[in-house]
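[Protein data]
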Amino acid sequence: MKTLSFLLVLVSTTTFSQSLLWKVSGNGLKKPSYLFGTYHIMKDSYLKQNPKIKSAYEGAEGVVVETEVDSSAMLSMAMRGLMLDKSLDKLLSQTDYQLVADEFKKGTGYDLALFNQMKPIVTATMLSLAYVQKESDTLNSFTGLPLDLYFASDGRKRQKTVSALETMEEQMAFLFDHDPVEKQAQNLVEMVKEKDDMHDMSKSVTELYLKQDLQGMWKMNEKSGNSFGNMTYLLDERNHNWMKRLPGLMASRPTFVAVGALHLPGPQGLIELLKKEGYQVEPQ
């Protein structure tokens, strides 16, 4: 089972420069835009030590993020995470269920029984986040808002045009509904059985991000994908969907695009997809 976007954030013949910030120009753009790879649980004090990123953001007239919290969609999102006619203890054998329950209690402090009717991908994501937060003292030293939320909220304060590449409903559909719950449950068991690999990955992810090492993150993601189930759709399919919107957004105004770092590299990553459309994409 692969984590959400740093989880939610690759094998490529391209050697990527160690940069999370990429300048996008050419192909009719009057002024350049910038593509920045975020780490969804990194706090915004990280920007204090990265003046190039802060400068690119402050100079942009528009800000683009993956999605924004829509309070009106919260109930619908919560319902999408439920499986009303099934429960995890029925999807798994008694042995596998106890294995997951013990690890979930250890990792999150919660009893798994409380989440029996949540789709297994929700449980897996909670456990993945617990691994990362417990393994990274460095991550916990940063303060402020999560980067994506910071760019959206601060962008509005600065009267920038803030746009989202997908709605909460669209994002949750990719996460909750792409695979049947039976497959999600088996991936959850597999993740727990391979927990040592998960812990190792959790120790590395923050270090790689702080090094701005896209290639290292790609390789780690590729390894985790082979171990915990293939979820490349969270990257590839969404990247192609986003490319239907990004050219128009960048053409309308100089834009700072902030999306999960793993959306940048790889043959189906935004860097390569933008190049194929005729843009110049250069590390900063």
